[in-house]
Amino acid sequence: MSNLDNEVKILKDNILELMFLVKNQLEKGQKALDHFDEELAHEITENEKRVDSLELTIDRDCENLLALYNPVAVDLRFVMAAFKINSDLERIGDHANSIAKYILDFGKEMEDEAIQKMRVDEMYVTSLKMMSNIFNAFITEDTELARKVFKLDKTLNQINREVSAITAELIRSDIEQIQNYLYLFSIVRKLERVGDLTKNIAEEFIFYIEAKVLKHKKMKSQNDNNNTDS
Amino acid sequence: MEEVSSGTTGPKATKMKTEPKLSSDNETYKLRARNIDVFYGDFQAIYDISLDILDHSITAFIGPSGCGKSTFLRLFNRMNDYIDSFRMNGRILLEEEDIYASSVKVEELRKKIGMVFQKPNPFPKSIYENVAYGLRIQGIKDEDFIEQRVVESLKQATLYDEIKDDLDKQALTLSGGQQQRLCIARTLAVKPSVLLMDEPTSALDPISTAKIEELIFELKKKYTIVIVTHNMQQAGRISDNTAFLYMGKLIEYGDTQKIFTNPEKDRTQNYITGRFG
């Protein structure tokens, strides 16, 4: 194995480690919410330091690879993708941390019926499924598996669009529980952002493997259609 | 003049099918190689290479040692003619004229297609006489004209400001980088339209290399440049198009940016990423 291959492998391993850690943070958040597990919520906030530390390590790995090995073609695409995936993962870690803080701030078990109505569990299951897909896609270099996150992200967006009306209805029906509903509303928003970031990771991964740029594709095709219309 | 259209490999080659001379608006192919085979005795060094080189562009030939890139480059000003066992099939066209046609005088061809070599090779003469040499052997006697051309060429080669007070100094006392720029000035003095460069910076330090690269980039405005280089980063930095040769065959040829970000062929990718060669 050449030095470059070795460095690329180290970078890949570190990204996988960060991906695994961040996915774990989300899973713990789901459990902490379901059972109001304060200890688990504290564990998430503690682990945030590990997420930040790994992010810095990966940044340094990327910088060294660029400076010392002048990568081109697939290696260059990998380093470019790694930079962005690293940043996306760190932000997913931030969202998991924020959710843990909401749970701790609320300080008691959240209303189960509201969790069901606002489809928070479904948000969690879907976003974790997206994370699993991208994790396995990265290990097996399977872009088809990575593409599956795009459809799952649409589910998250749909729930997110509907949650405002549901929250308003819940508040109207029981104003005493407003804080509970607002925390759950915020959690749904955070999970929707997790979905967006996981989608970005999938796009970067596909760019690395296939050299195809997928981001802003929808916007571009819309612009093209508008230009044709005019 | 015979039209050449089949077997084109080169930038924007698809346009060639309907428009043989122009690649796109205001772009013309300066050099064209057609089905080139090269033999040294029984050994075949080049296998059926066809490619077109755009006017006012920088084209880099890359590939591992012994892949045939220097042999291929030297075909463009008939430098291989000196080798007894050399034999060639195919045609090389400069502005659509076959440079291997019996009517072509090699000395005249080399006025149009100059060459800069790997190792700076100034003559053991003064700086001034090195640049004036090509003009003198053409029989030019007008000293004012020669002086004007010498100064102009040294300026074009970005050397003049450094040596303007030492034009009578021995060229061999210059640094390696200065000697190489002097050789470029010497080539420019006879007003070629194509510059061939065979690893022009491989013997130079990074600062001199950077100066030569800047110069090459500047010269692109007036000349068509073909460069052989072992330095992948250099090919990426300065060239518009890159040809990757391997074992005498043209593996891939196209836009440099594409070659260095997303090459079509696995073999190209493996070479430029340092995984073989």
Automatic annotation (TrEMBL), chain A:
It holds the Pfam family PhoU. The keyword NAD does not apply. Residues 15-103, 121-204 form the PhoU domain. GO terms for cellular component: cytoplasm. Its main location: cytoplasm. It is found in: Cytoplasm. GO terms for biological process: intracellular phosphate ion homeostasis; negative regulation of phosphate metabolic process; phosphate ion transport. Plays a role in the regulation of phosphate uptake. Belongs to the PhoU family. Homodimer. This is Phosphate-specific transport system accessory protein PhoU. It comes from Fodinibius roseus. The lineage of its organism: Bacteria, Pseudomonadati, Balneolota, Balneolia, Balneolales.
TrEMBL record, chain B:
One of its GO terms (molecular function) is ATP binding. Residues 1-21 are annotated as: Disordered. SMART domains: AAA. One of its GO terms (cellular component) is membrane. InterPro entries: AAA+_ATPase (IPR003593), ABC_transporter-like_ATP-bd (IPR003439), ABC_transporter-like_CS (IPR017871), P-loop_NTPase (IPR027417), PstB-like (IPR005670). Transmembrane segments: none annotated. Residues 31-272 form the ABC transporter domain. The keyword Amino-acid biosynthesis does not apply. Keywords: ATP-binding, Nucleotide-binding, Phosphate transport, Transport. Pfam families: ABC_tran. This is Phosphate ABC transporter ATP-binding protein, PhoT family. The keyword Membrane does not apply. It comes from Fodinibius roseus. Residues 1-11 have a biased composition (Polar residues). GO terms for biological process: phosphate ion transmembrane transport.
